[in-house]
Amino acid sequence: MSGDTAPHVVEDFYGVVRLLSDGSVVRGDESVLMPAEPLSPDVPGVQWKDVVYDATRGLRARVYRPAGGGGEGGNKLPVLVYFHGGGYCIGAYDNPRFHSFCQRLADELPAVVLSVQYRLAPEHRFPAAIEDGATFLTWLGGQAALGAGADPWLAESADFARTFVSGVSAGANLAHHVVVQAASGQIALGPVRVAGYVLFSAFFGAVERTATETDPPADASLTVAMSDQLWRMALPVGATRDHPLANPFGPDSPAMETLPLPPALVVAPGRDVLYGHVVRYAARLKEMGKAVELAEFAAEQHGFSVRRWGPANEELMRILKRFVDQLK
Hints:
single chain, 328 residues, alpha/beta, 8-stranded mixed sheet, 3-stranded antiparallel sheet, 8 helices
C-alpha cells in the first residue's frame, strides 16, 4: 500500500480560498465576502473598456473616462491608477463594487481611471502582485511615449504628467510599493510623472501589534484573525508580518528618507483594526519631511469607500478632488 495521504486543508478563508497541503488552491464563491451588487448605479456618460497590459500573463486593465472624454476647455485629464482590494487573495479589477467606484472617480474628479488586474495569492505569492503593478506602470510609460500612437482613449484624454497611483486595502499596499519603486528609479516611467498617491484603508502589517489590533473595534468588518490569515497566504512561505511587503518600516524594509516621494493622501477609517498601521504610516512620512495629508473617517470601517455609497463617500470624493486639483 502507498503511504501517501490525500492533501488536506491548511488554510480555509471562509470557504472562498482553501489552500491545501500540496500547494493547490480551491476557490469558492467570492460573493460570500465581496457582494456582487454594484456600489451605486452606473454613471451616465462614463465610458469604459478593457485593455491588455501584459499579454504573456493575460493581465488587463479597465480604462474609464467621463462623458466627452476630456476636461474643461478641451484640456486633457489627470490619470488615476487604481489597484483593487481583497487582501491579495481575493477581489478582481472588474468586481462590481470596484467598477462602480471607478466610474464615480472618472466622473467626479474627473479623470482617466485605470483599474488594474494583478495576480492573486496563494497561487501567486509575493512578490507577484508587486511585479504586476510595476509592469503596469512600465506599460503606462510606454503608452505615454507613443503619443498619438497610444491607445486612442489615452492619446485623446490622458495627461500623463498628472498621474496618481491609488488603491484600496491590499491595493493601497501595492500602490505604496510601486510608488517607492518608481521614486527609486526601479520602474521606467518614460513621460509619466507620478504627481501624487492615494491610500484608501491601506493593508499593512507588522509582528508588533498596534492598539487597534490588541483592542479592536467591536464591529470591525476586517478582524485581526482575517488579516493574519491573508498575510500567511500572501507572503512568501515562512515570512513574518515584518516582511518588507507587509511592513514598510520593518527591519529589512527599504529606507524612504532620501526618496523623492510624491505627495500622499492617506485615508484612515477609525473602526478599522488596521487604523494604527495607517496613521503610523502617515506619521512616519511626515517625520521624514514628506508631503502627506491624513484624512480620518472616525465612524467608518475598513474599505468603506467600496462597501456602500453614502455621506462619507461624498466627503471622500471632495477630499480626493481637492488633492488632485491642487497638484497641477
